[in-house]
Amino acid sequence: MPKVLISDKMDPKAAEIFRARGVEVDEIIGLSKEELAEIIGKYDGLAVRSSTKLTPKILESATNLKVVGRAGIGVDNIDIPAASAKGVVVMNTPFGNSITTAEHAIAMMFALARQLPEADASTQAGKWEKSKFMGVELTHKTLGLIGAGNIGSIVADRAHGLKMKVIAYDPFLTEERAVELGIEKVTLDELFERSDFLTLHTPLTDQTRGIVSREALAKTKKGVRIINCARGGLIDEEALKDALESGHVAGAALDVFAEEPAKENALFGTPGLISTPHLGASTSEAQVNVAIQVAEQMADFLLDGGVTNALNMPSLTAEEAPKLKPYMALAKKLGSLVGQLAHDAVKGISIEVEGAAAELNQKPITGAVLAGFMGAYSDSVNMVNAPYLAKERGLDVREIRHEREGVYHTLIRVAVMTDEGEKSVAGTLFGEDAPRLVELFGIKIEADLDGDMLYVVNEDAPGFIGRIGTTLGAAGVNIGNFHLGRRDGGGDAVLLLSVDQHVDEPILLEVCNLEGVKTVKTLSF
Ligand SMILES: NC(=O)c1ccc[n+]([C@@H]2O[C@H](COP(=O)([O-])OP(=O)(O)OC[C@H]3O[C@@H](n4cnc5c(N)ncnc54)[C@H](O)[C@@H]3O)[C@@H](O)[C@H]2O)c1
Ligand SMILES: O=C(O)CC[C@@H](O)C(=O)O
What we know:
It is a single chain. Helix content is 34%, strand content 25%. It has 17 helices and 22 strands. Strand 16 and strand 17 (434-440) form a beta hairpin. The strands form four sheets. It has a seven-stranded parallel sheet, with helices on both faces. Strands 14-13-15-16-17-18 form a six-stranded mixed sheet, covered by helices on one side. The two termini are 38 Å apart. The chain has four domains: 3-96 and 285-304, Rossmann fold; 98-275, NAD(P)-binding Rossmann-like Domain (Rossmann fold), CATH 3.40.50.720; 316-449, CATH 3.30.1330.90; 450-525, ACT domain (Alpha-Beta Plaits). The protein has helices spanning 13-21, 33-39, 56-61, 80-85, 98-113, 116-124, 150-161, 175-181, 188-194, 214-219, 237-246, 284-304, 320-341, 362-375, 385-392, 464-474, 505-512; strands spanning 3-6, 24-27, 45-48, 67-70, 89-92, 142-146, 165-169, 184-185, 197-200, 224-228, 249-254, 273-275, 346-355, 396-402, 410-418, 421-430, 434-440, 443-447, 452-459, 479-486, 492-499, 517-524. The chain has 525 residues and is an alpha/beta fold. Bound molecules: nicotinamide-adenine-dinucleotide (NAD) and (2R)-2-hydroxypentanedioic acid.
C-alpha cells in the first residue's frame, strides 16, 4: 500500500480520500526541515500547501518519493527542477482556489475604499471618528489588472458587477479574449497612468518580479489604491512604503509579501496599509476543493499511474513514453522560445511535424509545445492543462503532419500568429535525442537551447561580434557558445549566445546601446 505524508494544514477531506482509495496516510504538520528530511524516506507521496519547502536537500533524503501534490496553485515552495531530476512528479490544483482568491482581492478593494480596518480599530477604541474616514466609491472607477488569467478574469467579472471600468495588461491576453471578458487591453504604462485601483494577478517570474517598481509607481495616478493577492515579489516594497508615506498612493492592501511568513516587514505601520497573512486561498470551500483534488490526483497516480495536472510530466502510456521523450523535449524548447520572443498577443499557434516525428502520437508533442509556450507567461501550466488553457483563452491551435522527410530526418516547426503576421521557429534532433534549433524567424541558425541565453538581432555589419564579446567580457559574463545566423541577401543577423549566468538589466542595457543592435532579450531554458 503506498504511503503519503500530509505535511501542511489541509482539509480533512484529503486524508479521508487517501484512506478510502487504499493509500496509507500520516498527517504531521509543522515539521522542521531536519525533521522532514529524517522521515521523508518512508513516503511515496507528499501533500503540501505553501509552508513545507521541498528543497534539493530534502529531496536527497526522499528515496521513495514518487509524487508531490500541491493543494493550491503556486509551486514556489517546491524545487521543480530538483524534483524532476529525481523523477518525482509535481502536481498542483490550478483552479480550486481561484474564485476564493479573486473574492479576497475584491474584499481588499472594498477595505481600501472605505478604510475598514482603521475605522473598525478606531470605533472599537471608543473614538467615533466619523469625519476622519471619508471613503471613495468603486462605481465608475477604473480597475487595472496586471494579469488576466484564471483569477484576474474572475476579478474582472466581479468588478463589472460593481460597475467598474476594467483595463488589463497581460501580454498573453488576445483581443478576442479581452472582448469576451469585457476588458480593455492596455500597455503597462497606460495601466499605471489610468488605474484608480490596481490589482496584481500574475505569477512571480523573471518578467514580473518588481513589476510595480519605483518608476512604475511614479507613473500612477495620485491617490491610486493597490491590491496584491498574487505574489510578494511583484511589488518593490520600499518604493511602495515611500509612495504611501508621501500620500501619492492612497492605500495598499497586501496579502502576500516578499519574505513570508512576514512577521516583520518595513511596510508594517505605514499609513494606508492593509495586510492579511496570505489568506487569499483560505476559505472552507477552496480548501475542500484543493484537498479533494490533490488527494484524488495523487491516489490516481500512486495506484494506477494516471497523471493529472502534473507540472513536470506529460500524460503518456508506458510504451509511448521513451520514444516520445526527446521529441517532447525539443517541442517544449521551441514552444518556450516563441513564448519568450513573441511580444504581441498571440492569436494562434501551429505545430507542424515532419519525418520521424510524424510517425508518433502528436498530442504529447503539441502539449509540450503549449506547455513551453505558456510556461513563458505562467508557472501553473503543465502538459495536461496547457491545451485546455489554450482553448479557454481562445488560442487557435493547429496540428499539421507531413509524412514526407525534408532536409532533416525529423522536424518540428512552431509558428505563432500575431497582429504582425506569422513567425516561426523549427528544430530537429541531432542523433537520436539531442534537440537542436535549426531556424529562427526565417533565419537558418543551429543552436542548443539550454540554460541562460541572450538573443540579439543586429545589423549584419563587420565588427559587431568583437564589440559584444568585449562588452560581455568586461561585465564578467562568460560566453559558453555563439550561434550565428543571417538573412539570405543581407539585412539583419541573429545571435544566440549561451552564457554562464543570467544577464542583468544594466549589462543588457550596455549591449542594447552597442552600435547596430536592434533587439536584445534574455532567454532561459
Ligand atoms: N494569495 C493567495 O493565496 C493566492 C491563491 C491562489 C493563487 N495565487 C497566485 O495568484 C497568481 C495568479 O494565479 P492564476 O491562477 O490567475 O494564474 P494564471 O496562470 O491563470 O494567470 C496568470 C496570468 O498572468 C499573466 N502574465 C504572465 N506574465 C505576465 C506579465 N509579465 N505581465 C502581465 N501578465 C502576465 C499570464 O498571461 C496569465 O494570464 C499566481 O501567482 C498564484 O500563485 C495566490
Ligand atoms: O495554500 C495557501 O494558503 C496559499 C495558496 C496560494 O498561494 C496558491 O498559489 O494557490
